[in-house]
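Justification of computing resources. Each target in the renewal requires a structure prediction run like the one illustrated here; the chain below, 292 residues long, is used simply to show the kind of job we budget for.
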Amino acid sequence: MRSLIALVRWAVVGCLWASPFGAAFAIVATADVHLAVAQEDEAVVNEEGAPPANEEEAAPAESDVPAENDDATATTPIAPPQSYLGWLTESLGWLYSVIFLLLSFALVAVFVMNVLTARRENILPSQLIEGFEAHLNAKKYQEAYELAKNDESFLGKVLSAGLARISSGYPQAIEAMQEVGEEENMRLEHRLSYLALIGTISPMFGLLGTVDGMVQAFDVIAHSTVTPKPAELADGIATALVTTLVGLWLAIPAIAAFNILRNRMARLVLEVGIVSENLMSRFQNVGGPKLP
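Resulting structure tokens:
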């Protein structure tokens, strides 16, 4: 049993790293495991502490037990209580479970991709700035152009576009840098917009589940010849509430991550414009170097 509990705990830890939807279910699963362990330990203690019953006292005489009490002593076995995790899964149903799991894993993948993209070294690398400025100071314009062109960062693409057009004049170089900057900025925003998309459609699926669950509940009422019991309406109402809850679980972190990353990228893009113009400002009053 202990090895089984350890295995469940490792599975829970894996879910916590998988997705926010899996994290919420993992927390509930951990609580269920601890509850099962506590119930098992309590049962063991009760069995060990209970004194052995006297067979003569435990077994009453046949003459003392009326025959009509046989039916009274036969009780219906009570089903064990369902865990919270199992109730959530059953309330969602397989369709909404698959939808929210796909949205959850997509959220994690898009978030990690944008976090890696929004690093300073991917947009505004310090080594490129130092090397490019050193080549310009040494009047090695071809080497500076090759350094910027071989760099895949945001700043590298902007500098290579400006230096390639500097022979036509400084205004043309600035215009080329602005065009490339707008194109790269649009690419970053498109990739980041998937976070906002997930944050928008997740509560919409929750709302769809809410309407679906209420339709199920009213369908039970419509097809019942008598007043339906609350237990008969519980399935539809549970679907309505749980889908809304899970949709909000996904939407809140998605919208928060979108706004945080958008502000960071906007600040880095602004720094790219300032740094690139400062590096190219030395060609403001000249025709620019002639690149072969």
